[in-house]
From TrEMBL:
PANTHER family given in the database record: CONSERVED VIRULENCE FACTOR B
Family the entry assigns: Belongs to the CvfB family.
Taxonomic classification: Bacteria, Bacillati, Bacillota, Clostridia, Lachnospirales
Stored InterPro entries: CvfB_fam (IPR014464), CvfB_S1_st (IPR039566), CvfB_WH (IPR040764), NA-bd_OB-fold (IPR012340), S1_domain (IPR003029), WH-like_DNA-bd_sf (IPR036388)
Gene3D superfamilies, A to Z: Nucleic acid-binding proteins (2.40.50.140), Winged helix-like DNA-binding domain superfamily/Winged helix DNA-binding domain (1.10.10.10)
Domain of life: Bacteria
One Pfam family here: S1_2
The protein's name: RNA-binding protein
S1 motif domain: residues covered: 150-211
Length: 285
């Protein structure tokens, strides 16, 4: 069975000057009009009738099914991060690695995309039997990632829910999330992130953190705290008992991370804490 949007093995059933026609292996194509054209420039050198070729099927600009030996950046039901090449009145066109760009209709966009932007999409067949993209990818992502707690991963932020966290497509294909308690780094949709797996949930989805383990992160956080106090002329107008919201606003840190950093600086003799402030000691300035 010929199927749009997937790599499949087909047989050369007829040769023409402009290319070859392909059909299902072991079956007659029933004439060129029922075969699938593989244009001449795509035909491997020396290929002949009866040979098997691995091809991808899609529709050309005239709505005809056509084959290519080029492997696209994603197949039917898969997800991938693609770049927006152009926008138009009907939607955006994405680079999927083929001669014809992939349509991302307006109704399938979770926000209005712009030329040059990268977005996470899934490939599906629309009502008119054409390949199209959707940014509504949650149900397409997989929950069988090969990662375990402590592993480093690369991902793509595709949605942010302030009540839950940042949804991340790990490797562009697996479910991941930076929980709300970790949202202190100013994450945004479309951002590529390097994270650490903190937990593999029972359903296979990954909990992530963009921060190092506490005993490593504390040094970076301490430097950040010193820098911010410096911006307050060396005297922070609150101490480590400040509200979490104030700490998050000024440092983009959780209260626990802030207290660990302050404790480290205090132990190093770089600051002193008063009833209403934190002050950098003179020799540290």
């Amino acid at each position: 069975m010929l199927e749009l949007g997937r790599m499949q093995t087909l047989e050369i059933v007829k040769e023409k000057d402009f290319g070859v026609y392909l059909g299902e292996p072991g079956k007659s194509a029933g004439g060129a009009e029922k075969g699938v054209l593989l244009p001449k420039k795509q035909v491997p050198e020396g290929a002949k009738t009866g040979d098997l070729l691995e091809v991808f099927l899609y529709k050309d600009s005239e709505d005809r099914i056509i084959a290519t030996t080029t492997r696209p950046k994603l197949s039917l039901g898969e997800t991938a991060v693609l770049e927006v090449k152009e926008t138009s009145k009907i939607g955006a066109f994405l680079d999927m690695g083929l001669e014809k760009d992939l349509l991302l209709p307006f109704k399938e966009q979770t926000h209005a995309v712009k030329k040059g932007e990268k977005c996470l999409v899934a490939l599906y067949v629309d009502k008119s039997k054409r390949l199209a993209a959707t940014m509504k990818v949650y149900s397409y992502l997989r929950s069988d990632a090969p990662y375990k707690t402590g592993d480093d991963i690369n991902g793509f932020v595709f949605e942010i829910n302030p009540e839950l966290g940042a949804f991340v497509a790990v490797d562009g294909i697996y479910h991941g999330m930076i929980p709300r308690r970790e949202l202190f780094g100013g994450f945004k949709v479309g951002q590529e992130v390097h994270c650490r797996v903190t937990k593999v949930r029972g359903d296979g989805k990954l909990d992530l953190s963009a921060r190092e383990k506490a005993y490593n992160q504390i040094f970076e956080d301490a430097e950040l705290v010193l820098k911010v106090i410096g911006e307050f002329d060396g005297v922070l107008p609150f101490n480590d008992k400040a509200d979490p919201e104030v700490i998050a606003r000024e440092f983009k840190l959780s209260k626990n991370a802030f207290k660990r950093a302050v404790g480290h600086l205090l132990k190093e003799g770089k600051i002193e804490i008063t009833e209403k402030s934190i002050r950098v000691l003179e020799e540290t300035k």
